[in-house]
Amino acid sequence: MKCPYCGEPDTRVLDSRATQDSSAIRRRRQCVSCANRFTTMEKIEEEPLVVIKRDGRRELFDHGKILKGLLLAGQKRNIPLSRWEELVGELELELRSSYVKEVPADSIGDIILKKLRKIDEVAYVRFASVFRQFPDVEAFKAELDEILKETGEEGQEPG
Amino acid sequence: MKCPYCGEPDTRVLDSRATQDSSAIRRRRQCVSCANRFTTMEKIEEEPLVVIKRDGRRELFDHGKILKGLLLAGQKRNIPLSRWEELVGELELELRSSYVKEVPADSIGDIILKKLRKIDEVAYVRFASVFRQFPDVEAFKAELDEILKETGEEGQEPG
DNA sequence: TCTTTACACACAATATATTGTGGTTTATAA
DNA sequence: TTATAAACCACAATATATTGTGTGTAAAGA
Question: Which chain C positions come under 7 Å from a protein C-beta?
Answer without folding.
Answer: 6-11, 16-20
